[in-house]
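Morning!

This is the sequence you dropped in the shared folder:
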Amino acid sequence: MAKLRIILSTLIIAFLGASVIAPLYSSCLVAPVAFAEEREELSFEMWTLDWDTISVDAGDVIEQMLRQIGVRMKALPLDDSVFYADLETEHTYEVYEMSLGYDPYPNNLMATHSDEAIDYGSNDPGYLNPEFDALIDQSNRELDFEKRTELLWQSQKILAEDLPYIPLFTSDDVHAIRKEWKGFTCMPGGIFNWYNRLTMIDLYHEDQEYGADFIMAYPSYIRYYNPIMGTDGRSALVVALVYDDLVAFDEDMNLIPWLATDWTISTDGLTVTFNIRQNAKWHDGEPLTAEDVKFTIDFYKEQEAPYDISLMNRIDSVETDGDYTVIVHMTEPYAWVVHEFEDVPIMPEHIWNDKAWDWPVHPDMMPIGSGPFKWDSYLDGEWIKLVANPDFWMEDKPQLGSFTIRVISESSARFLAITTGEVHSERYELDIGFIEAAKASPNLVPLEDTWCVGMWFYIISFNLGGHGTVSYPALQDPVVRKAIAYAIDKQQLVDIARLGYGTVLEDFIPPEFFGSAYEDPDAMRYEYNVFLANQLLDAAGYLDIDADGIREMPAPAPDSDGDGIPDNLDACPDIAGLPEYGGCPGEVETLEELETRIDELSTSVADANSNVVELATEVQALRSQLTSSLNMSYGLAVVAIIIAIVAVYYAMRS
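The structure's back. Tokens below.
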């Protein structure tokens, strides 16, 4: 009996040992290959705007979509005070997804010009491409529409190839506004935006043609009282109510006179003459003259204000001819010179002549403009009240008696306030959660009557490191950016984030906003294709080597001579230095030798790509082998444990 128990005990120990050792042994067969080294993952933090539900919802959907290609894109909603501060001066973000605003003319590509890669500039990605810059500069000088459009198309192709950002969709503008309000104008960008000055002057109450008090809800308070710095969507609307620009736009995006009655451009494009209205006054009663316009332009230039740079850098000098004529001399022809003056608020010289461009204007000082409304009162962070300017230069305008802004941070509270009449509309388009309720409400204007092509276009922006503050190698690889572009179903974003009230964007100059004249039939586009996205990453060596669902960076390419040129691309891998005419440093090859070397290099690159694909296939096979081995081993272990238990049972009975 004792011998039997010894034998059984030995068997039990053997089976238990096998149950533990077998899975470990199976793992060891594959682990040295699959887990040979640790590499940085394709994992990024993507900022979204916490108060913008469209940005937040789209970010969450994008995070899920990119899991299909082994990219972790963690959506992180941030307060705009943190978000914007980083974009303005710190430039440390990895990826962001939010909306930007189109100007009424297609100069938006200028935002990624190298000149804008500065603090407070618009080139958030830090994109630096001299070829792109040259094309944009040439298009800006070209006064012929067709030639300029062709240059813009060439610029667009470069952006589509490099992808410093991915256009996603526009949020079409449908507004909740109470039905008693009339006179609003629908134009690209919506019934309420900073360049829709027609709504500002024509809005009225059906029972009170003049003098009614209009109340608009804002999701958060304006950022700046300073008219130069107030370029965000909330501040810009207030600036447009209080200050005048020289020109404005009609509902078809055509230029129309505003503070200037007319203008002329010389045949060489180097002189622009504006005639100023003779009945315009500042809100403190002082007359507005050509000297104020000259002062404003000189102020921007002399103080090097980091706004409207593309215009100000092209202005050589300004002079006046009498009290109401301004002559602007350009350093070169500029196609958008008159258009861009729509975004330059004219400021009173007698208020600003001893101030800096970033002067922290305080509302207690009653900011002085010449626009249709003037400052009345405020409670910082909560509300602003503007009243009609009785001395406004346009006869019988504005029709409102006052324009009040109230901060209501929650979208549900804003919509409830509109339906009850506590406020009359809101700054931005209607949140999708309330579209059905708005359609059913008898107190609101039908949404179809407020539906305009949206000016807010949502993008994914990548930090390419051009500001010099950070470096993210994976984001600097265009293959990664292209794979992300292919992996995003933009129509699904529109359907989820805007319930269909949006327009998918494929072009950097979208004809949906700017008109069919700008549609490039040969534009490069990234249609939804997850399979192709995965192929791109596989071929570039971004593989999931630890089988956790997230790809890792490629293994560093061998570089024997340490000259920064991988051996497979180096003409002389054992001699440091740049090759000369395809040969080794110090050698000069004949043209025939150079052509042969180029052919060999092309073959080497093709072989390398083929090897990467084969490696990816082998890794996948090893994963399958590992899974099968582990399943079999764990099955054997379970059987061993059962046999051991039975053996113990019979041994105890004996």
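Headline: Residues 591-653 form the longest helix (63 residues).

More detail when I'm at my desk.
O.
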